[in-house]
Specification:
By secondary structure, this protein is an alpha/beta fold. The chain contains eight helices and ten strands. It starts with a strand and ends in an 11-residue tail after the last helix. The protein binds 2-amino-2-deoxy-6-O-phosphono-alpha-D-glucopyranose (GLP).
Length: 270
């Protein structure tokens, strides 16, 4: 696993966007061989999306031959609800880039048969050749997508019940009223994320420091689903300084040191 430590959130966002754009360009995608991206919602990826929109407008990356699969979607709120992940993705990203609408995939949280919807999603991912790069954030309890503590590390796309901790954390988007936060969501599984050819997690802020500590220094456990990434052969976490609060000094210095030898992805975009 690589751990990239950037000074602040703006630098984390720039690094992530430059990396994603460089990976898309490196693959030189075509209609026959598109690049397949897994995408998150939440506040963590917002800065990356802003930078990707800028890079798209500057002509440094195109999404014409990119297919996307979002990680998760709430159940029980309408698709056009202002806090649905459909709305989030179109408002904050898709409407501003050159991606064809038919290339966007988001789980239907209101599907009459949620199990069939989850199966359909897994099959669709398979039918386009699997995910090249899965991007994610992390919850304060270490969850990736909505794989809350206790989720099997081999889980596939399915319905999950959100924990109190996640509902409280997400209540800031629902008038700070935890009762307005949906109780259920459809989410890709840890296994679905692990099948991607590469994974990039964005971890920022002091409130994520415990999750980062477990993800980097803890033992692999279903109680902190972020730890599954330790078993992935191409996983990167890009984080800011406040998120490093709970890392050992030695761990922090180790990753700072080895990353000085690695190329900054912005160098690949000029
Ligand atoms: C939600 C999402 C996750 C996200 C997490 C953190 O629970 N399902 O995919 O990583 O929140 O969100 P934020 O980035 O807003 O802290």
């Amino acid at each position: 696993m690589r751990l990239i430590i950037e000074p602040d959130y703006d630098k984390v966002s720039e690094w992530a966007a430059n990396y994603v754009a460089a990976e898309i360009n490196k693959a030189n995608p075509s209609p026959e061989k598109p690049f397949v991206l897994g995408l998150p919602t939440g506040s963590s990826p917002l800065g990356m999306y802003k930078n990707l929109i800028r890079l798209n407008k500057e002509g440094k990356v195109s999404f014409k031959n990119v297919i996307t699969f979002n990680m998760d979607e709430y159940c029980g709120i309408p698709r056009d609800h202002e806090q649905s992940y459909h709305t989030f993705m179109w408002t904050n990203f898709f409407s501003h880039i050159d991606i064809p609408e038919q290339n966007v995939n988001i789980l239907n949280g209101n599907a009459p048969d949620p199990e069939a919807e989850c199966r359909r999603y897994e099959e669709k991912i398979k039918s386009v050749g699997g995910i090249d790069l899965f991007i994610g954030g992390v919850g304060t309890d270490g969850h990736i997508a909505f794989n809350e503590p206790g989720s099997s590390l081999t889980s596939r796309t399915r319905m999950k019940t959100l924990t109190k901790e996640t509902m409280i954390a997400n209540s800031r988007f629902f008038d700070n009223d935890v009762n307005k936060v949906p109780r259920y969501a459809l989410t890709v599984g840890v296994g679905t994320i692990m099948d991607a050819r590469s994974v990039l997690l964005i971890v920022n802020g002091f409130n994520k420091s415990r999750a980062l500590h477990h993800g980097v220094e803890g033992a692999v456990t279903q109680q902190w689903t972020i730890t599954a990434l330790q078993m992935h052969n191409k996983a990167i976490i890009v984080c800011d300084e406040p998120a490093c609060e709970d890392l050992k000094v030695g761990t922090y210095r180790y990753y700072k040191d080895i990353e000085t030898a690695n190329l900054d992805p912005s160098k690949l975009l000029s």
